[in-house]
């Protein structure tokens, strides 16, 4: 299946990127994306011109880092990998190609966060930022170190909800525009988006409650779980909570900490549910598939034209292999066929 949904990650975009020998003349200053994105693509393109060479390199790099983190911090590795495959694998490897490179660096940076090894931490964070601008979150979280060192409580969650509600107004937009002008356009775009269906909102609320409960269990019990995982899960909780009001936190920033949540979830199920764990796995997998299926529906007919955007995946048939050399015009032709068929169905309803 070919799924090249991330803007800047299509075959056409890669064709515009020079080979390694031409990078010295490339205008990084006025380029649309972060510099390491172009350098990585140029490297892969020089080895093999086909876009699938980059996709294979990308999958090895991103999944290699994720498997390393899971292996380092988790006793029940296969359980966590199962959750990763069910919930996140396609998203990281087929859609957010640029950001998943950045979050891989973020995972390596978090190895140094709890011990306050700031030189190593900020080095990896800056490297992450060189892949995708959302890596800015890694440079911000040291300033809320006190949050990561405190114990989760309901008062803290209430404060986060109030802060998220206040900042969901024009306030945060102006702050970002004043201090982070290079990030203001993306922030504006994501802040205007609406959740396409109620399933997206339900999922976010359930995740906030679930993560808060699990983190609380590990904070109050004597466990062998690494402090790095607990801290990462707390930042996942923070971004998901703020994401209830500001979508950019749950759709972008939360990605950097999701693996820690999955590690806690896998460990929690194994240690608390015993023989029932297989049933829990099945229910969780079914829930994830159900939510993704409904959250990805095209609900453009339900959304007002003034809503500035909504989340859904453009799905059209037939799917194709990443090894097929399909032109941009052909992809557009297939997409137009899908929309025409959809329009015909609506006319007969």
TrEMBL record:
Give the keywords, sorted: Membrane, Transmembrane, Transmembrane helix
Listed transmembrane segments: 51-71, 78-98, 118-145, 157-176, 196-215, 227-249
Identify the InterPro entries for this entry: EpsG-like (IPR049458)
Q: Which domain of life is it from?
A: Bacteria
- Matching Pfam families, A to Z? EpsG (PF14897)
Record keyword Transmembrane present: yes
Q: What is this protein called?
A: EpsG family protein
The species is Segatella copri
């Amino acid at each position: 299946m070919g799924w090249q949904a991330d803007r800047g990650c299509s075959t056409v975009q890669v064709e515009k990127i020079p080979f390694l020998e031409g990078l010295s003349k490339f205008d990084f200053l006025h380029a649309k994306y972060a510099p390491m994105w172009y350098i990585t693509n140029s490297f892969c393109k020089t080895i093999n011109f086909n876009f699938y060479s980059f996709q294979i390199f990308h999958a090895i790099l991103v999944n290699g880092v994720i498997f390393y983190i899971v292996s380092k911090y988790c006793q029940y590795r296969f359980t966590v990998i199962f959750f990763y495959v069910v919930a996140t694998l396609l998203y990281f490897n087929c859609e957010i190609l640029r950001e998943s490179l950045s979050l891989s660096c973020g995972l390596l940076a978090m190895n140094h966060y709890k011990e306050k090894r700031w030189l190593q931490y900020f080095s990896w964070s800056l490297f992450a930022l060189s892949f995708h601008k959302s890596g800015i979150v890694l440079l911000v979280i040291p300033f809320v170190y006190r949050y990561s060192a405190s114990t989760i409580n309901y008062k803290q969650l209430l404060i986060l909800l109030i802060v998220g509600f206040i900042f969901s107004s024009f306030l945060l937009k102006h702050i970002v525009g004043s201090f982070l002008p290079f990030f203001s356009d993306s922030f504006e775009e994501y802040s205007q988006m609406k959740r396409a269906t109620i399933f997206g909102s339900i999922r976010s609320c359930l995740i906030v409650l679930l993560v808060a409960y699990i983190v609380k269990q590990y904070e109050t019990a004597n466990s062998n779980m690494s402090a790095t995982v607990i801290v990462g899960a707390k930042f996942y909780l923070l971004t998901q909570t703020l994401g209830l009001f500001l979508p950019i936190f749950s759709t972008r920033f939360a990605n950097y900490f999701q693996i820690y949540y999955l590690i806690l979830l896998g460990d929690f199920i194994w240690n608390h549910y015993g023989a029932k764990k297989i049933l829990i796995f099945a229910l969780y997998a079914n829930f994830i598939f159900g939510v993704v299926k409904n959250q990805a529906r095209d609900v453009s007919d339900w959304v007002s034209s003034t809503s500035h955007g909504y989340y859904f995946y453009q799905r059209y048939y037939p799917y194709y292999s990443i090894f097929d050399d399909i032109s941009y015009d052909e992809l557009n032709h297939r997409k137009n066929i899908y929309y025409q068929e959809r329009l015909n169905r609506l006319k007969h309803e």
